[in-house]
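Chapter summary example.
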Amino acid sequence: MIITDNHMHLYNHLRLKALEEFKAAGGTHVFLVSLLSHHYNFVPKTGKDFSVAFDEHVKLVEKAKKIVKAYAILSVHPAEITVLGSRYGVEKAAEIMMEALDVAVKYVLEGKAVAIKSGRPHYSVSEKVWKLSNKVLMHAFEVAKDANCAVQLHTESYSREGMEEIVEIAKKVGFKIDKIVKHFSPPLIKDFEEIGIFPSVIASENNVLKAAEQGSRFFVETDYLDDKDRPGAVLGPKTVPKKIKELVARGYEDVAYKVCVENVEKVYGVEL
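The structure predicted for these 272 residues follows.
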């Protein structure tokens, strides 16, 4: 049985042991997402400097592949506009982020990663920062279109209006809407299907069951942070295997297969 966690981090706590726990619980496939630049102890002066983080992440994913089937997603986190903006100003930060997305896509084209991550801040920002963030997001869709890869999104909390706005940004550059994956999604499967974006449902409480009751067009994730200062956050590495097995036990075996296999192959263009 294939069980896929669509969004997990490995940082400074359990590291690869987290995947051992994931595997022991029944997990087989995982999408590992890189973190912000400061997690890799460097301050980028240009987008090209992000190769420091990307190289380290790709090496970690290669080690992870010895435990489970692991795929790399390279992130230019939308919060970088605040982190880098405090040092260089937000206009320069946006420039660095867009150049970093150019670099990230090269790794996809080389087969070292399968997708990129972008988005916009999940916290309150000025109108100027919001506009610049949307500009960076549009650039992410542009470069991902050239590479024909998916884009995972870290965004503000779900609202129909917000998601439809993101769809319009993607349409401006001709990016395929069904290759947009909303990380940390609520289980509003029918809404997302109408909008066109693929939801990656956070596997807390009864979210996975609620999602399955509405359909099978979604992913499941823990957003495990692997931060020693917040052990177990957001959800532990055993969570997705547990929730998928619960689905199967409740008679949703076909949904589980679609979520963990068919959707993954369709959106990310990988063969499990």
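To summarize the output: The two ends are 11 Å apart (CA to CA).
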